[in-house]
Amino acid sequence: MFERFTEEARTTVRTAWSEAESLGHRAIGTEHLVLAMLAADGGVGRTVLLACGVEYGEWRAALAAGDDAAALRSIGIDLDAVRSSVEETFGPGALDRAQPAERGGFLFRRSTLPKRFNNGAKKALELSLRVAISLKHTSIGTEHLLLGVLKEERGLGARLLREHGMSYDRTVELVRTALREAA
């Protein structure tokens, strides 16, 4: 399947791997694909994301905070307020994770290298091919990856994109516009 990917789309997939690794995540999800699109220098996917107000720093911060932060926000718990309160009582960094012992000790750091794509990311990659075919495109670009992420509605990437007001249908129109302008 990757032979039909444009160089930008291949770079996005490789960058998603690197981003997941740098965040210490064990699997690559749809959220990492979006982060990788934002990290790249070009591509229609990035153009559309930026036009919708999705920015690399904000997206990465949300992933670093974890999905739990979004879940807590949805029930009215402000994680930043909780952190401030705990640090006032127990000191700065009280909630930071302890660094694991170096290899060779009783405990050693496990590799944080992502082992695989999660099911949502696999499905998004598959859907990106279907999207490209439905649009009568011969290759898979970052725009198709973005649409594949949105079409895989259950993934964290799609949920976070919906929080930015992005829907699949509206994004298809934005992609078509961006492709016309790029031609």
UniProtKB/TrEMBL annotation:
Superkingdom as given in the UniProt entry: Bacteria
Transmembrane segments: none
Limits of the Clp R domain: 2-182
Keywords on record: Repeat
Keyword Repeat: yes
Repeat listed as a keyword: yes
Pfam families noted in UniProt: Clp_N
Protein name: Clp R domain-containing protein
